Amino acid sequence: MLSLAAETAAIRPDWLGRALAQLDELLVDHAHCEKKAASTALSLLFRYPDDAPLLRPLSELAREELAHFEAVLDVLAERGVRFRRQRPSPYAGRLLEGCRSGEPGRRTDLLLVCALIEARSCERFRLLAEAVAEPGLAAFYRGLLASEARHHGLYVRLAAALGDPDEVAIRLRELAAHEARVIAEMPLLARLHC
């Protein structure tokens, strides 16, 4: 089960229409998101090298995220769309503003923010899979749902393994409420997280 405080339909009902109207732009953003997800997993490995429960799961996750990046590049190539730089959404930066600064709270919060990003991706991939008129692209998004949900669960489990599970659950609810506020305040762009 995803730990989102609010669904897109409730807080940004205009998102899906914008996404469908600018699918190529959304796919470029999707590629950037997969690349960033791999980078984030590696960054956590470097930041917390003494936390053994993180090492193998995050290494495996980084490889899977890079495989997803390559898969999105393939979709872009099939559509004749060039991967390019793109002005990023302020979403992740705004989520990080909700993180505590001292350890081990910061580590817990970073893992939970990653979980929420994965959860929002999963939710939006489901919306796209149900609404995209192109069967191949709809199937592509359906194919990503299970892995995004698994990534969400992994980050939550890692946070709970390294901290008090009850405190992690409380903090996840707090950060999920923060994430919903951030989504509601984002400018409407053709991005997965805005």
Task: Provide a descriptive summary of the structure in words.
With 194 residues, this protein is mainly α. It is 75% helix and 0% strand. The protein has a single domain (12-81, 88-185), classed as Up-down Bundle (Ferritin), CATH 1.20.1260. The chain contains 8 helices and no strands. It is globular, with a radius of gyration of 16 Å.
The topology string of helices and strands comes to HHHHHHHH
Low-confidence stretches: none
Largest sheet: none
The CATH architecture comes to Up-down Bundle
Query: What is the mean predicted local confidence, pLDDT?
Result: 95
State the domain count. 1
- CATH 4th-level superfamily: Ferritin, core subunit, four-helix bundle
Number of helices: 8
What characteristic shape results from the CA principal axes?
A: globular
- Give the percentage of residues in beta strands: under 5%
The CATH class designation is: Mainly Alpha
At the fold tier of CATH, the topology name is Ferritin
Rg over C-alpha atoms, rounded to the nearest angstrom: 16 Å
| Number of E strands | 0
Approximate helicity band: over 70%
The class by helix and strand makeup works out as mainly alpha
Please name the defining characteristics of this protein.
single chain, 194 residues, mainly alpha, Ferritin, 8 helices, 75% helix
SSE topology sketch:
Elements: H1 8-11, H2 15-21, H3 23-47, H4 52-79, H5 91-96, H6 105-131, H7 135-162, H8 165-185
Helix pairs in contact: 3-4, 4-7, 6-7, 6-8, 7-8
Question: What's this, in brief?
Answer:
The chain is mostly helical and 194 residues long. The protein is 75% helix and 0% strand. It has one domain (12-81, 88-185): Up-down Bundle (Ferritin).
